[in-house]
Structure formats: C-alpha cells, structure tokens
Design goal:
The chain is α/β, with parallel strands linked by helices. The chain has six helices and nine strands; from the N terminus they run βαβαβαβαβαββαββ. The protein has a seven-stranded mixed sheet, with helices on one face. Strands 8-9 form a two-stranded antiparallel sheet. Strand 1, helix 1 and strand 2 form a beta-alpha-beta unit. The longest helix has 24 residues. Bound molecules: glycinamide ribonucleotide (GAR).
Length: 205
Amino acid sequence: MYKIAVFVSGRGSNLKAIIDRLAQTEKNAEVVCVVSDKLDCPAFKIVESKQIPTYSVSQNENENFLSYTKLVSILENLEIDLIVLAGFLKKIPNILIDSFEKKIINIHPALLPAFGGKGMYGLNVHKAVFEKSVQITGATIHYVDKIYDNGKIIAQKSVDISRVESPEDIASLVLEIEHELLPEVIVKFSEKKIIEKNNRIYINK
Ligand code: GAR
C-alpha cells in the first residue's frame, strides 16, 4: 500500500479530488492522514466520516498543536511514502524536508517559476497574474525543498485566460486543472512512474 499524507490549510477541494480519484483505483494507494496548520481546518470535514486521522501542527507546540518533531515521528511510524501539500500555506521546516527528502510535493496555482515565492499563494497569485495581463496560466506540481516554490517541476498544465474578467475567474479555471493534475501525478507516484534522469523529472507512461 502506497501511503499518502495530505497537508491543507483551507477548504480542501484538492484533498477531496485526491480521495475521490484514489477510490477509483485498485486501492493500492490511500490517504492515511491529513495535517493542517489550523485547529479546525475546513478541509478536516472532508475526512471526518472516513476514519482518516487529522493532526494540527505548529512551530510552537501546545495542548492543541503538535510540534514538527512529533509530527515527523508520527509520519515515520505511519510509513508515509509521499507528503502532498494541497493548499498548505506555511513554510515547511527543514526537519520535515530532511526527513522526507524527495518525498514532498506541492501544487502551486500558476506556471512556475513565474508567480511563485513568499506571499504568492491562493488569490494573491491570481491577482498578480491578472494584473500582469498574462494570457496563459496553469498549475504546477513540484518537489518541495528549503526555498519557497523552488524544487524541480514534476508536471504542469496550462489554461488560456485571455477572456477572463477577474482574478476569481482565473482561480476557478486553474482549480479545475488542479483537480485533474494533482490526483493524476499522485497515481503516477504510487505506480513508481516518476523518475529523475538527465537532471530532469520524467513521468513514464
Ligand atoms: C489551491 O489553489 C492551491 O493551488 C493553492 O491553494 C489552493 C487550495 O485550495 N496553493 C497555494 O497557493 C500554495 N502556494 P483547496 O484548499 O480547495 O485545495
């Protein structure tokens, strides 16, 4: 069984797309826990009835939040194969990156390396894309390293936004793509079809 941990901060529509997609496969990959930087993250509702545990994490451990050190040991005990940042908006601390090298991926709602970096998340990204009058945007899935939105790109999908009238229009077009691309890439990971060659990432058929 290929075990996935999904990290979320908001509504969790990507989390839902992942769970729905994995339910259609041969059941050889599954989401085994959901982690948030929020206590009552709206995305937790999506797994409420599914017996998938949820954890809240913070740099400052207290009675409600786990420390990242404790989270790492929980994820190691669960034998997590892949951590998916699906709208997780906090920077991932080095302890997690060092413990799960090349096992953390992020979805970003633009075509990196443009419109990435600190502060570039959610609607901020789409506003910047709108204001620049960019005509094509999309979604990017990349490895997470110690620098924001910097790791190697695994997959991208684009969308024509030449007719949009607001950043919100862009957000909904991009979200549609995200819901296809992220589950697709996760399935490829579970099938061991994501490989590194020539210092690039390839997805085998
Ligand atoms: C998604 O659009 C995701 O790409 C974005 O947050 C949204 C979460 O939506 N992530 C970032 O901006 C990271 N830089 P969701 O909670 O409905 O999946």
